[in-house]
Design brief:
Length: 162
C-alpha cells in the first residue's frame, strides 16, 4: 500500500511529483536505445522535443531547475544544470530519481519554506520570465512531467506503428 507523506501541502506536492515521475519511469522502462535516440519530430523548432532522448534530457534538467530557482531566491549562489544527454532508458530512470531527491532535499533544508506568496514582487522570477511562488513552481513541475510523459507516449506510438 502506498505510503503518503504527512507534512501537509509539501507532502502532497512531493507525493504527486513522485507519482508523475513513477509513471514516466514506467513508460520508458522498455524503451530501446534505438527508440530513445530516434528523431521523431523533424518539424519542431524546439531542440528539446525532437526525440525521447532530448525530451528526457530536458525533463531532468528542468527538474533541477525548479529547485535551483527556489534556492537562488533564498540567497544560494547556484548555477543551473547543463544538459546531459544519456544513452539508455535506465540511465534516465536513475537521473530522474536523483533529480527528485534533489528536490526533496530542498524541503529538508528549508522545512519552513513559505509555499504561497500573494505579492507579485516577492514571487520567484523563473528562467522563462514568469513569477511563481514555491507552490506554483512545484505544481508546474508536476504538470511538466505529465505533459512530457504524454509526448513520449505519442512518440512511442509513432515509432512503433511505422
Amino acid at each position: 500500500m502506498k505510503q503518503y507523506r504527512t507534512n501537509g501541502a509539501v507532502g502532497a506536492l512531493l507525493d504527486e511529483y513522485e507519482k508523475a515521475l513513477g509513471e514516466l519511469k514506467e513508460l520508458i522502462e522498455e524503451v530501446t536505445d534505438r527508440e530513445l535516440a530516434q528523431i521523431v519530430d523533424r518539424e519542431t523548432q524546439d531542440p528539446d522535443c525532437v526525440s525521447i532522448q532530448t525530451i528526457l534530457t530536458h525533463v531532468v534538467r528542468s527538474g533541477y531547475g525548479y529547485a535551483i530557482s527556489v534556492r537562488k531566491s533564498l540567497g544560494e549562489p547556484l548555477d543551473y544544470k547543463e544538459r546531459v544527454k544519456l544513452n539508455t532508458a535506465r540511465e534516465y530512470q536513475e537521473a530522474l530519481d536523483d533529480m527528485f531527491h534533489y528536490n526533496e532535499r530542498l524541503f529538508e533544508d528549508y522545512p519552513n519554506l513559505q509555499l504561497e506568496e500573494t505579492e507579485d514582487q516577492k514571487k520567484i522570477l523563473v528562467s522563462w520570465g514568469q513569477r511563481y511562488d514555491a507552490e506554483q513552481i512545484f505544481e508546474h513541475a508536476i504538470v511538466h512531467i505529465l505533459r512530457h510523459r504524454r509526448q513520449i507516449e505519442r512518440f512511442l506510438l509513432r515509432i512503433r506503428n511505422t
